């Protein structure tokens, strides 16, 4: 019979009074019972605290905290604080509007112990606000987890990953300075640094529901131009392009090179000179050091674009024809 180690379920929340009860109910309904649920409030102004405290009074496994000031505002500061409070042998970060299906924790624990894994990647469903129109989010890995993930061939949501705490403690946690893409930054960094070393398994069982709705930041981020979001995305692509050079992988290099060109044109056309210069200076420096021809072309195209205030179509088309 397999052991029953403690699992820490860490949930950041902000103004989720109308939804977090469903999330907590789904955790209480887990067939696996040896867990602690650490909920960290990022400064809610609705009655989230009251809802959670009612659950805490009924079930001592549920614990409510307010994010301390030493952690930056935002979901990632709350996630990092929750991790520092956790006592479990395994860690499951979860969101306050998503749903755990009953066997989620049990299945992940069984897989992790049976195969002595550093982490389990489980599949799940996405849904609309009312948890209808379920769509399977199938996870497939072809050869290299880092390459698949960073080139968006494999979509992995936060509820998918179930970590051995001893393993994930070796890494810096979520980057609290980023406005967007924090999960992507964390996962891609962990997958890269543990590349060919980490022991993991992809579970084919569908054990969570990822809710997509109007209040979900990820589904709203494309509706308007937000400077801090684009800078965060550009930073992630710069970092991953550097990794592409290190592992000499053209797929990674060109995926993020194309992203950076897109972000450069987008920021410039939105008159965001600060972000367009950030991309221009960092990308030009990297290209000149690694591919002189393309570096010179991008340097010229970028300079002409700043003078015009936007990228002329012919120059943009010329640059689009080059790859690393």
CATH architecture of the largest domain: Alpha-Beta Complex
Proportion of beta-strand residues: 15-25%
Number of strands: 9
- Low-pLDDT runs: 215-221
Q: How many domains comprise the coordinates? A: 2
- Kindly name the structural category: alpha/beta
InterPro entries: Glyco_trans_2-like, Nucleotide-diphossugar_trans
GO molecular function, one term: transferase activity
Protein name: Glycosyl transferase
Transmembrane segments: 287-307
Features of the shown structure:
single chain; 324 residues; alpha/beta; Spore Coat Polysaccharide Biosynthesis Protein SpsA, Chain A; 2 domains; 9-stranded mixed beta sheet; 13 helices; Glycosyl transferase; Glyco_trans_2-like
